[in-house]
Amino acid sequence: MASIETMKVGDALPDLAKPPVNRTTLALFCGASNDHNPIHVDIDFARKAGMDDVFAHGMLSMAYLGQMLTNWVPQSAIRSFGVRFGAITHLGDEITCSGKVVETFEDGGESHLRLELAAKDQKGEIKLAGQAVVAVPRKGE
Amino acid sequence: MNTALLGSKSEAIKVPVEAGQLKFFAKATGETNPIYFDEAAARSAGHPALPAPPTFCFTLNLARSDPFAFYTQGLGLDLGRMLHAAEDFEYIAPFYAGDTITVFETLVDMFEKKGGALEFYVFEGTATNQRGETVVKMKNVLVHRNG
Q1: How far is CA A69 from CA A12, A37, B33, in A?
Q2: N or C, which end of chain A has less CB nearby within 10 Å?
Q3: Other beta carbons less than 10 A from residue A8's beta carbon
Q4: Which chain A residues contact residue B142 at CB under 8 A?
Q5: SS3 for B18?
Q6: What are the distances in angstroms from CA B6 to CA A59, A77, A105, B30?
Q7: Cβ–Cβ of B90/A33 closer than 8 Å?
Q8: CA–CA gap between residue A52 and residue A43 (Å, rounded)
Q9: Which of B 56-95 lie inside 8 A of A, CB atoms?
Q10: What is the mean pLDDT of chain A?
Q11: What span, in angstroms and rounded, lies between the C-alpha atoms of B103 and B105?
């Protein structure tokens, strides 16, 4: 892996592959994240709302993208992090997180990388498209 | 859309950041980096306690007796028709287990797409620590499916 200090536009950070989403994943995340919306855990509620089954919390995959970032840089380097939720993540979907550098810039005396992020399923469909800005540590830090 | 609702604020709640919930969040998300669930590893990495991970402010904002009352009772939205469209975080300072975070959000924009079939609600949230320092700013977009 390229060290963050030498990364340039087009370079990728290490992917993060997660296991398939199952009902236990959603039950645990419901409790742990305080997102008790029954549409993610109660199939009766989901069907009444017109869905075929429960589906994953978008914030679960955003947490996965966050892990990809914090596996790579200390969290304190992350200046901003955002996503658009493009498609629903269904039971059985396997999310893989990826990211690449799309811009390098200076701001307030700090070097930064702008990253483009994606969480895709096993078919390559983009579930979340995002971006983040991370500060590059100065040499010797 | 009832634009008179613009500027509506959720109740500001004061939430203790608990080590147990951070560990549960780490388990639920398959976290493998021990600084997020092992106090000794966190301290070795220079943290005073377990750090809150990047999306945790969203979770703190839902630490309410009814997490969605602002949307359902306050704005009249139907939970079964709501989807999360976007989420953004701006990080100002870290926060840790043992901190107390005050969080609320404000409805700042609303618009329709597809001839009113989709209604979008944009919220800006602020999380402040026990010293009155803003730690995270959030932007949350919800979409409500009509018809």
Answers
A1: 12, 27, 11
A2: C
A3: 9
A4: none
A5: coil
A6: 25, 34, 35, 38
A7: no
A8: 8
A9: 58-60, 62-63, 67-68, 79-91, 94
A10: 94
A11: 7
Q: What is the mean pLDDT of residues A4-25?
A: 95
Residues from chain A contacting residue B82 (CB–CB below 8 Å): 37
Buried b (16+ CB within 10 A) or exposed e, B2-34: eeeeeebebeeeebebeeebbbbbbebbebebe
- Closest by alpha carbon to B123, among B110, B106, B135? B106
CB A78 within 8 A of CB A69: yes
Distance, CA of A22 to CA of A95 (rounded, Å):
12
Domains recognised in chain B with CATH numbers: 3-17+65-145 (3.10.129.10), 18-51 (no CATH)
- What CATH number does domain A4-136 carry, 2.40.30.10, 3.10.20.30, 1.10.4080.10, 3.10.129.10? 3.10.129.10
pLDDT tens, A38-80? 999 999 999 999 999 999 999 999 999 999 999 999 999 999 9
| Residue B89 to residue A69, Cβ atoms within 8 A | no
Q: Are B113 and B144 in contact, with CB atoms under 8 Å apart?
A: no
Average pLDDT for A118-135: 98
pLDDT of residue A2: 57
B16 near A CB under 8 A: no
User: Residue B26's Cα: distance from chain center in Å?
Assistant: 17
Q: Where are chain A's structural domains? A: 4-136
